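pasting for ref
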Amino acid sequence: MNTIKKITNKTDNIASFIVGAIFIIIIGILTYSILTGKQTKKESVSTTAENPKLPAEHVVQKDESLWTISEKYYQSGYNWVDLASANSISNPDYITVGLKLVIPDVKPIIVESGEISASIAPKHTQATVQQDDTLWGIAIREYDSGYRWTEIARLNSIVNSDLIYPGTVLRLQ
């Protein structure tokens, strides 16, 4: 009977040791995979956000605009103009879900605070809207900067920049 107790105790000790070792190994593997998995994810996100490979192709998703797509690839929404130009988009407000865009390899446009509304005066005090004109185009003609279109819209109380009509006279100052 004593011999059976000794054998049973040894078996229990060995089984406990094996189960404990397996448990520690499993915990170690899980911890390692969690830590390295998170690190890899962070690295891939920061690499993509900071240095996307350009040129690239992008498929427009729901609630995206040329501005948000530009922010994604250039960290600057101001490059939306390059996206519109590279894809022959005449009206940037009308892009559709599923549209494939070419993302050109261009230098990001970084605008310092106050740079857009610089004190450059327009060439004229007013402009008459022509057929196929856009506020962007008028801003380029008058201010040499399309980004000043918002100033024209504000001066003329234009809520929807797509609704300008030929013959309309716009104030520029």
